[in-house]
Fold Ribonuclease Z.
Amino acid sequence: MKLTILGCYAATPRTFTNPTSQVLEIKNHIFLIDCGEGTQVQLRRNKIKFSKIQHIFISHLHGDHCFGLVGLISTFRLLNREIDLHVYGPKGIKEIITLQLKLSNSWTNYSLYFHELESKSSEIIYEDAKVTVETIPLNHRIYTNGFLFREKPGERKLLIQKAQEFNIDVSLYNSLKKGKNVISEDGELIPNTEVTTDPAPVKSYAYCSDTAFYPEIVPQIKGATVLYHESTFLDDKFELAAPTKHSTAKQAAAIAKEAGVSQLLLGHYSTRYPNIEEFKEEASEIFPNCELSDDGKVFVFE
Amino acid sequence: MKLTILGCYAATPRTFTNPTSQVLEIKNHIFLIDCGEGTQVQLRRNKIKFSKIQHIFISHLHGDHCFGLVGLISTFRLLNREIDLHVYGPKGIKEIITLQLKLSNSWTNYSLYFHELESKSSEIIYEDAKVTVETIPLNHRIYTNGFLFREKPGERKLLIQKAQEFNIDVSLYNSLKKGKNVISEDGELIPNTEVTTDPAPVKSYAYCSDTAFYPEIVPQIKGATVLYHESTFLDDKFELAAPTKHSTAKQAAAIAKEAGVSQLLLGHYSTRYPNIEEFKEEASEIFPNCELSDDGKVFVFE
């Protein structure tokens, strides 16, 4: 599981910082999460192949999370993209994009599917054999979802030597990998755990931005491998967090601690702070395994 | 008259080039012309004060000329802008912007006026004591206007020593500057030209992008100080110009020559060309006083 931060600053793009966008590579998928203005240039800069992006998840319709989407969709067209593109985001996102494509008379030459979200409860919005993506309803000024990306457990690992010792026919190996007990050539019932071991532990990534301090998300993200939680403010601006429905670094750390995640990533820093190291300092007091996102930074989670 | 090129490449923003946007400073106005994605960052990079921009002119609704507008309007709001903003552009532009502001629940705290254009004939869309702006109907795949920015003639220059010699009362100096004849203290009729000289010659800037080769614009831009004319292609791709309704460098030069402008600026280069110097070489053969736009370049026209 690999995460590339394209942008992680709040509000407006600046000369050297970008609004929110990130790329999650998980089980051979390249998922784009949020798409602030300038995302397509950040994708180029970070050498992410455009054609590998088939799913884009938009948390909410504030500009710093979505104003780069129409440009990216248009660029895909100009590059003669042929493969499908799926966009998941709040109701209204389809109208925003299609209005602009209509008025510029620039329909895509590839299939563009919108999956509009309006549920206030969590729902699975993507699923295949290897991964699921579910919404994490957040508490922001407008309708906002985080996203929980979860690997599915892989097959059990077959201990081939053991299987041979128990005289199990090769045609049953797949059943063993799926966790089933089998009958050996000698007519014996072989319990699955005798010839397999557990699959590699699954990893999960919980993306939570933007949101006020909102402990209601804790049960859903419990035990996640990585939690990205917005931290717009330091504690010095604590009083701004609640009315703007953003969080402080300490609040992000409190969520991480309560949820028992393995690692916390901070981001969505207000551009008023010249030194983002202070976010880490404040959060680490509460949750030590905490890292700072920054534009262009790549995290590999083994 | 000063022109700052924020971006002058066709189609998609790239790591080191930007789509179309430029800033024209004329008679104390700061006019923003077109607004591709990334314009707000280019404004910062080129140290153009956001608050000085009160008028934005959008030629057409292709993304490389307008996808940066909603972000700029939103940033103005985040920076607590108070002064009015006027946007001139094709019909539909208001719907594009207001839909996004509505869905993000982010109405501007300043007054935002849309002046939607749909006339196929030239019209004056802005006028004050010192300058006029009129549309230049162009020939592109969708409804597109260029813009002609014209200084108004200033007052005549008073030759104070002469006026004193003719014994003209100071209270009449303003009439002289306005071109009127006056009666001296000695009762003599003093012809205006005896005590004044012509005002400084007026300057004008014709912005023509995007457009096919379209000689119909020549009468309107006749004698302009500067013509910015798109040159998407070199002559090697001549056959692409007509169907895409773009121009070659040679065609831009032919328009400049026919219109007898003082200077030609080329831009809107297709990103297929690694060396833009070739645009200048081709155009110069037909119209020698030709310059290349490039991102971040500043032209001062005396």
About this structure: Chain A has two domains: 2-154+200-300, 157-197.
